Structures are given as structure tokens and as C-alpha cells.
Give the backbone structure.
Amino acid sequence: MVLFAFFFTIMLIYWRPKGMNESIPATIGALIVIASGAVNVSHLMDISVKVSGAAMTIISTLVMALVLESIGFFHWIASLLVQRSNGSGIRLFWHTNALCLVASKVL
């Protein structure tokens, strides 16, 4: 039953009938696995405890990216990097890497 749920979920995610969001097949697949008894509530709680930190990090990163996009930060920093690169693709590459390094250390 678990393999059926997996392949059914993957099929729906790739097929995307009528533009269906990926969360719907994932939820259906999870409900099939839970209903089949392959996973019980104690397993769910154990998994939730183990992944909650990573999940919160991902969610906060997405929220931060949405806020930065809404205030135009990415357009501003992109134009600044292009200006500082003076038409050199190599300099643009290294400036982009430096920006990623600073962002990963600061944020």
C-alpha cells in the first residue's frame, strides 16, 4: 500500500491535472499511508520533532525572500552588482559569489 501511495503521489505531481497544486497529491498520499497503518501517531510525532527546526528555517527563509522581493531588494542588488562588474562576466560571477557568502554568514 505504501508503494501505491508513493507512485500515485508522484504520478499526480508530474501529471498535474488542471494545474493541481503539489500539496494536494502529497496530502492524499500521506493520508493513504496513515490509513494503511504503515505509520502511526507516535512515528509522526517523532518525525515532527526531528524536522521541526529545519522546517522552521525553510519557512523563515521563504518569508524573508518574499519580504525582500516586495521591497525591491533583489532588483536593487542585481543592478548594483552589474554596475560594479563593469561589463565583465567574471567579475559578476565573483561579486555574486561574494554576495552569497555574505548573505549566508549574516542571515
User: Anything to note?
Assistant: Residues 41-70 form the longest helix (30 residues). Residues 72-107 form one domain. The helical segments are 2-15, 23-36, 41-70, 73-85, 89-106. Residues 1 and 36 are 7 Å apart (CA to CA).
